[in-house]
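Running this now, will post back.
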Amino acid sequence: MILRSVTKRRFLASGAGVGLGLGLGAKEVFGQGLQPQTPTYMRGPQQSPNIPHRMAKTTPLFKSPRGFPNALAVMTDAPGGLWIGEQKLSGAQAIDFGVPEPKDLHEAAWLVDWSGKLLKTVMTPSRNTSGIAYGNGCVWMGANELPEGVFQVDMSGTLVNHRQIPLGPAHNGGGCYGLMYQDGKLWISAHRLRGVLRVDAKTWEPELLIPFDLPKTPRLHAAAWDNGTIWLVAGTDSQSWADSQPGLARFDAESGELLETVSFLPRSADPHGLIMYQGSLYSCDAGIHPGWVTYDSPMAGYIFRIDFV
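Update: finished.
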């Protein structure tokens, strides 16, 4: 196994400034002792004035099927459409968010057309899903609840594979914040690694880690492909929709260089999933957010387009 970092000097710092470390030392990742440093180009727009910064607004399009939509993926082959990953809350989380315990813990991958019409439902064993990808005739669901990992499910609902995020314990590689399938590779927004990890979808070998270290916007979520670059959902640790400050960050997919950042206008929808489709970015507002009252956002449950202003 060969894991390629963006460069040695760009290794993500695991210090308290971020609030969450890798949970994995530099020696464990690279096989040699390195001194992690906070990369200059990942210190946020306020600390990196040379990085372009834009503003964006959100335009609600349609509501997802009933439930919490927390992930998006594009289906390019027939019949085409938009995959939406369902998130369910159970146990202590259901109590914390004030929602009823689900009768069935399986979570849906819904395929809808671009008007929101439901075309297909694939039930999966994923738990507390926060990431969906479509590729090789399967949906891939990223779990944030035990047994965690990534569930690969075919169109009949048959489980093809369940594998943990690499570079962690064999039985638990940590949670997932987003998934993206591109050219036979699966990009995983990995909670434990605090970055986006590229793995070979067939061999499950980890190949590249793009660390995520934006102290001003520490929230990491879904990823979308854009012509050799990767958009990531970022945001602040807000306590309500009214004071939320979501954003985006775009990285070079090979070097990991931060190319630009984006802030959303006040009172925008709350982004969770992320896709690029025909030159535009789309996201979904799950209706739940850590620290918020459930359904605090007026756009809860909506699929929306992201428009730059």
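The first strand starts at residue 4 and ends at 5. More later if anyone needs it.
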